[in-house]
Amino acid sequence: MDYLYDGSFNGLLTCLYEHYYSQKAENIFEASRYQISMVNQSQTIDPDDVKAKKVSLAIERLISKTALRYIYHVSLSNDINKGKIILDFVKFGFIEKKDITVFFEHPFVHPVCMLHKQVTVEVHRFLGLLRFVELDGVLFAKYKPDHNITEIIVRHFSDRLKNERFIIFDEGRKLAALYYEGSTVIADFDEVNFDTDSAEDNIRKLWKSYFKHISIKERENLKAQYQHVPVRYRRNAVEFNQ
């Protein structure tokens, strides 16, 4: 059975849960990158916060917090086989019941360590290189990372630019992180072109569309607001330190 998920970390953890409590998985893929197999059946797994939390706690308890952090970073990598890499790593860790990240040369550990390193190196590189410009009162930065690291990048800058409004745009994935007064939305914006002369107009429209109600009506429940936003909002089951 190939399990397919939505690309979120919660979705990936939910697939791991189903592997142990439902049907064994041969592989795990992001649904958007899956090529139909002539051998295995496939099943789309919806993210479940409760199931994801149980898996994250089990990994911390039976393997290590370091292992959970490594898995998170691998989940952000651009490797199409990352789901299988993580599945094999977790299965091995649950058998050993100790911190397996120290077994660097083991065939189920080495790929995780290498992808973890690639992702963290890229994060640190862009934290030093990313530059903001001010457009219509909003700080804007665009970049094109190899890995899907925007949620780590925005977490860093939301801590350092708490009083600012800013957008970080991943050009390759058409993915934008919007931050305002402690609230963050990460969403797909396929239709937005920031390379034209009307970039400032695009940012103004985007900002007004998604943030105009955040600071009014005594700050209505933000979760309820997200339900009416026609974009994919990514959430994590646990917070991670770099």
Low-confidence stretches are 212-242
Total count of domains: 2
User: What is the overall number of helices?
Assistant: 8
Strand order of the largest sheet: 4-5-6-7-8
End-to-end Cα distance, whole Å, is: 33 Å
Shape: globular
Defining traits:
alpha/beta, 242 residues, 3-stranded parallel sheet
Overview of this protein structure:
The chain folds into two domains: 2-121, no CATH class; 130-227, no CATH class. The protein has eight helices and eight strands. Helix 2 (49-62) packs across helix 3 (65-75) and helix 3 crosses helix 5 (110-129). The model is unreliable at 212-242 (pLDDT under 50). It is of the alpha/beta class and 242 residues long. The strands form two sheets. The protein has a five-stranded mixed β-sheet with strand order 4-5-6-7-8, with helices on both faces. The protein is 43% helix and 16% strand. It has helices at 9-21, 49-62, 65-75, 82-96, 110-129, 150-160, 199-211, 222-227; strands at residues 2-5, 27-30, 42-44, 133-135, 138-143, 165-170, 175-180, 183-188. It is globular. The longest helix is centred in the middle third of the chain and has 20 residues, at 110-129.
What is the gist of this entry?
Helix content is 43%, strand content 16%.
Please describe the topology of this protein.
Elements: E1 2-5, H1 9-21, E2 27-30, E3 42-44, H2 49-62, H3 65-75, H4 82-96, H5 110-129, E4 133-135, E5 138-143, H6 150-160, E6 165-170, E7 175-180, E8 183-188, H7 199-211, H8 222-227
Parallel strand pairs: 1-2, 1-3, 5-6
Antiparallel strand pairs: 4-5, 6-7, 7-8
Helix pairs in contact: 1-2, 2-3, 3-5
